[in-house]
Amino acid sequence: MAIKFPSIDFFQELARRMDANAAEFEKLGFCDTVMGVKVDAESSHLYALTFEVFECSDVRELASPEDVELDFMLEAPLPLWRQMFESLRETGQPEPAYTLNSLSHVGDRMRVVYDDPEGHDKFYRFMATLQAFVNQASDLDIEWA
After folding, report:
1. How far apart are CA 36 and CA 13, in angstroms?
2. How far is CA 141 from CA 85, 87, 96, 113, in A?
3. Cα–Cα distance between 29 and 2 in angstroms, integer?
4. Is the peptide bond between 6 and the residue preceding it cis, with omega within 30 degrees of 0?
5. What one-character-per-residue DSSP string does the chain give?
6. pLDDT of residue 106
7. Does 1 score more than 90 pLDDT?
8. How far is Cα 53 from Cα 41, in angstroms, rounded to an integer?
9. Which pLDDT band holds residue 47 (cuts at 50, 70, 90)?
10. What is the pLDDT of residue 107?
11. Per-domain residue ranges for the chain?
């Protein structure tokens, strides 16, 4: 069954998979951050993902970034999110050009938005866990909005 992107169901499924693959995430070390994910499209969508220790403990859709204290937010247009997830699905792992690190640095196609340097630092500090979280979508059947 296909899962729509962007949707809360999509991120809840990644959280469920993270929990099911706990051993993989424990090897990466703890992760304590609240990450925003903004998908820019005709109608923008914003999600808050709360990571505590080795799990994604909360996923919610927000009306505004001010609804939750985000450490940082990843912001990109829907076509870029689609390219990233389709690349992941094709190869089973992220191609170098489509990792969170590359997308947020090379050409700044994905923006990292933050209010203070500590929030920005958390993006890099927990990068391995965040990338592994995204990688959980490698075999998802995604229905694009």
Report:
1. 16
2. 10, 13, 22, 29
3. 31
4. yes
5. --EEESSHHHHHHHHHHHHHTHHHHHHH----EEEEEEEESSS-EEEEEEEETTEEEEEEEESSGGGS--SEEEEEEHHHHHHHHHHHHHHSS--GGGSHHHHHHSTT-SEEE-SSHHHHHHHHHTHHHHHHHHHTTTT--EEE-
6. 82
7. no
8. 32
9. very high
10. 74
11. 3-138
**Residue 139 contacts residue 91 (beta carbons within 8 Å):** no
Q: Are 75 and 60 in contact (CB under 8 A)?
A: no
- Residues shown for the chain: 145
pLDDT of 22: 96
Domain 3-138 indexed as CATH 3.30.1050.10 = yes
The encoded tokens of residue 21 equal 């693959």
Strands 55-62 and 72-77: unpaired
CA dihedral defined by 39, 40, 46, 48, rounded to 10 degrees?
Answer: 40
The owner of tokens 């089973």 is 92
